[in-house]
Here is the input.
Amino acid sequence: MSDRPTTVCPLCGVGCRLEAGDGSRARGVPGPANPEGRLCAKGVGAFDVGDDRLTEPQVRRDGRLRPVSWETALNRAAAALTDVLAAAGPDGLAFLGAPHCTNEENYLLQKIARLLGTNNVDNRARLCHVSAARTLAERLGWPATTNGLADIGEADVIIVAGANPAERQPIAFNSFVRPAVRDGTTLVHVDPVGNETTRLADYHVAPRPGLDATVFDLLSARLLADGDGIDRAFVADRTRGFDGFRNSMAEYDQTRAAAAADVDGGQSASAGAGETDVPNEDNTVARVADELAAADAIAAMVGTGIEGGTADASAALLDLLLLTGSVGRPGTGLFILRGLANEQGAVDAGSVPDRLPGHQPVADPVARDRVASEWGVTPPSTPGKNARELLAAFGEEVQGALVVGENPAISKREQEWLQRRLDGLDALVAVDIMPNGTTEHADVVLPAAAGVEKSGSRTNLERRVQRFPRAATPPGDARSDRTILSALGTRLTGDQAAFDYDGPAGVFDELTRVAPTHAGVTYADLGAGGRQWPFDADGVLYRRSFDTDDGLAPFGTVRPVPEIDSAETLSLVTGGRASEFADDASATPVLRLSTADAVERGISSGDEVVVTNGATELVVTARVDEETRTGTVYLPAIVADPLLRRSSSTVRVHPS
Ligand code: SF4
Here is the structure.
């Protein structure tokens, strides 16, 4: 057995355990999320942080960043932010954290903000799965995955929607989903575009982009109409609002819904390209409904692909799960496939503008009293600005910012606007491992340790809190964000005791005292394999009741069948497959489109084509394939970024 420290992979929300291997390669260590000790290609590179590291604190003088001692840099950072506090008040400050920072680091960031009197603290983890998290919180109790990865093998049917876990969460997929399918579990993939996950699926339902909710409502309508698969005891004992839901579904126009979502033409995933082995009357949606009706346990896994459609897809999916009694048991429930390492933990720790640690609303007086009894200071009751609002206020109401592990200057869409905003600040303090667009504008830059170079805890996509020791040495003078935030917190608040912790254990133990979700354990109790919160449960939430006022889960309101605009525009779907990024950065990116759309436009594979949203144009290479549904085109997100606008993802495509 190796005596090297075992850490937790800092590169995605699965949370595989690993240690330093040969050279800069990581070696997998069996853990709850990677029981066979496997790592994906990304995880193998976890120790390869890059050469272009920040290694010494820097302070801007005469327009240039110059190396200084830690003492000088910390004092300068605290003085600059304190000047803003004095001139503009607490809400003149912004605190931006990052989902890959540890639970302890996110906890400290929000503690500094709230001790100074503002809830202006946020991180992009809050935005990644906002509708799925909100649906779960509002209707079941907690904005988190309901079950554990290990029990997914007990599912009879797994629905994966708007996600590609075979590539994005590969170890979780290969350790839990693939063996389940091998043992007979039916895999249904709901996604407008086929991908690696589709290859294992028994059924691929490819709705028009944004119409996933219609697919789930259609499935609920079919189950109710046939009367099969409804768990009547569960519906009667554990839910409310069923009669209204059933009555609305009785009037649901299945034919129009199927036409709107364009799912009647779906084909089984086992059929080859262009094959039509599925008779029309036995279409994919009908066959999936039959599978659901016959299943005892249904689990669903959702990604960001179902966010932002014309209706709330996670709400529709949850209705389907409630209807079939598929919540609160092993092999059931809804998994949020979180992409970044500590997305769940960053929000759990309260690094958001409207929630204290443990998802307690800032307006809740009981929650504020609980925090005040630990801190000696009552946090403010008015929600702060979110990250987007904070950036828009930079240089105006907000004059100072502490940015930890985040790079708001990265957007390609609004780069000039963002840079003007950053330059408009009186004080910008950036904590990061590498130089980036934000550090370029900072008054003080503090060099941070990378994920494997620090200790602490992270919470994976199944609510598992795993602690880990430092497994590598940070370069030069770099320090952990936790150490940096403790030093800054002491200086900014003048309260040394508030930030005098006995390592990450001290911070985590304080978190467990203020966050009811994390009550009842200590850092030491987390053990080698970590534990899922709430720590008094066994990993499956809502076994006996839901965390709602009456303990019941409400059905939602049936979503209207959408009207489809049949204009000649195509829906742009984006994603982030590693395999789509060519080694040669200058290579022309690839746009995938269906044969029908290609023929209609006179386009062949390999042609240069123009993609335009009316305001911006990109020249890309066309690839015609059968996995892309008609009416849809697909680009890697990093390429599509300039084409995406808040309200529009439709484009026109023509030969260049
Ligand atoms: Fe790391 Fe995620 Fe790969 Fe596991 S699946 S090794 S956590 S990147």
Remarks:
- The pocket of iron/sulfur cluster is lined by residues 9, 11-12, 14-16, 34, 39-40, 42-43, 169-171 (CB under 6 Å).
